Amino acid sequence: MTQSHTDADKVRHWWRTSIIDMEPGKIAFRGHPIQDLIGNVSFPQMIWLMVAGEMPTADQAALFEAALVAGVDHGPQAPSIAAARMAATCGVGLNNVMATAVNMLGDVHGGAGEQCAELYYGIATLMDEGTDLDQAVRDGLDAWRAEHGKIVSGFGHRFHKPVDPRAPRLMELVRGAADKGTVSGRFAEIGEAVQAELGRQRGGRPIAMNIDGATAVIFCELGFPAPLSRGLFCLSRSVGVLAHGWEQMGQGGRNKGPMPPEYLPLYEAKEDDR
């Protein structure tokens, strides 16, 4: 092998991917020529193909799409949306506006679906080892709190009490998909059992399964690894971010902060300042 061939192989092997085969005049995703995909598959199907490596069935794609639709927006009071709208008044481009919001979707806000999926998968593992559902939920919650603290991701909402209107509809769709054999329904049972146990631990006061908890059920039912729950939610919420950013650009405004300028933050003086 000549030196030039060796160097060429080094370059070609620098990145390895089974996602796309691209060369002049050719684009294929996971073995599917782009011209065969355009006009024939939906955007949710395309997302699935790209991340999972295969084309979903129509029923899988419908359930997946429902989860994506449910998470698109939650209004300007959501920190990520508020930050996006503020960014839009600062003279940056729409891509910067969207990046501002997506970068805020972490463990507490928007990214909790990953943690909730980890909880569900952990409970499922306990059940695989022979623990019954109720005990697995209690043990899973104990293990969760020992690592993450008392707040359980995917449950509870500061606005929607005791019901997050998105969750019951998503769970209804999961149950329908389970009846058709599209999914097992196992993670729907786990999610609802966690919700019930948390209510019991609160002295009988019901607690909402929120959007993170419900979409985590769907992503687990569809076999997506827990970290993908966060990435998929980011894709979903990006739709709302785009809409709010574009709307704010149309409304105008300049250097808008988190509160009107006639209102100032509370200054808390230290003893040395008095």
UniProtKB/TrEMBL annotation:
Its EC number is 2.3.3.16. It holds the Pfam family Citrate_synt. Keywords: Lyase, Transferase. Coiled coil: none annotated. Gene3D superfamilies: Citrate Synthase, domain 1, Cytochrome P450-Terp, domain 2. Belongs to the citrate synthase family. This is citrate synthase (unknown stereospecificity). The lineage of its organism: Bacteria, Pseudomonadati, Pseudomonadota, Alphaproteobacteria, Rhodobacterales.
